[in-house]
Amino acid sequence: MVKTFKMKYLCEVLGLEKYDTLVVTGAGGKTSFCLTLCDELKEHNRIIFTTSTKMFIPEVKKNYKIYVGDDFLYKELTKNGAYIAGKEENEQGKLLPFSLDEIDSFKEKGDYLVIEGDGSRMRPLKGWNETEPVFVKRTDKTVGVISIKSLGLKINDENIHRLELFLKISDAEKDENVTKKHLFNIINSENGLFKGAKGERILLINQADSEKEFDNALELAELLIKEKMLFDKIIISSLKEKTYCLVSDL
Length: 250
What we know:
The chain is an alpha/beta fold and 250 residues long. It has helices spanning 10-14, 30-41, 100-105, 163-170, 180-188, 211-226, and strands at 2-7, 21-26, 46-51, 55-56, 64-68, 81-86, 88-89, 94-96, 112-116, 125-126, 141-147, 160-161, 200-206, 233-238, 243-249. The strands form three sheets. The protein has a ten-stranded mixed sheet with strand order 1-15-14-13-11-2-9-3-6-5, sandwiched between helices. The protein has a three-stranded antiparallel sheet with strand order 4-8-7, with no helix packed on it. The protein is globular, with a radius of gyration of 17 Å. Strand 14 and strand 15 form a beta hairpin. The chain contains six helices and 15 strands. The model has no long low-confidence stretch (mean pLDDT 95). Helix 5 crosses helix 6.
C-alpha cells in the first residue's frame, strides 16, 4: 500500500538543503523543473543553473541573469537571483558546458547549483549513450525526470531520442505504444534513467496534469515500489499546475 503527501513547493518535496548540487536527467520537463526551482529560490538565494552537456538558452523572467563565456568563472555573485551560465553559445542557440571541474567550482559561488545532465532534443522519451548522463563529483542529488504523458505514444524516431538505445533498455519493439512496463524498464535499467547516478536518487514522474495522468503515475510508482526499486524518493508532479506529491510506501 502506498500513500501520497501533497506539498506546496518543489524544493520542499525534494528535501532540498542549502548548498545542494542537483543533476537532472531524463526527458519530459527537465528544463521546466530547473526553472521552477529557480523561481522558488531566487528571491532569497543565489541559484546557478547550467549544463554538463548542452541546452537551449531558456526564456527567463525577472531576477535572472545569463552569462556566456569564461567571465562567469571570475564573477562574484553578491545579489540573490537566478544565474544561467554556459561556456559558449553554438549556432543552434545552445549553451555549451564548462569543464566538470569548473562546474564543480560553482558550488562555492552560490547557494544552490542545478545542472542539466543530458539532452533529449525536445522529445518525451530517450535512450542514453555511453557518454551520458554527465555528473560532477560533488553531486548531492540525481533527479530522474520521466513524463507520464508518454504512455500510449508510438515508439518511433519522432517521439524517442536515440530510438535504438531506447529499444534495448525498454524491451520494446518499434511502432508499439509506450506502456507502464516500458517506463518501468527504462527507470530500472542500469543503462537507463539513473545510469551513473550520484548522491540521493529521486524519481520525478512528471506531467501528471489530470486525474487520469495522476492515477497512471501512481500505478507506475506502486509497480516500482512493489519490485523494491532502490530510490530514495518518488515524486509525482505537475509542474504546469505546481502540484507535488511525495509517494510513500506504508
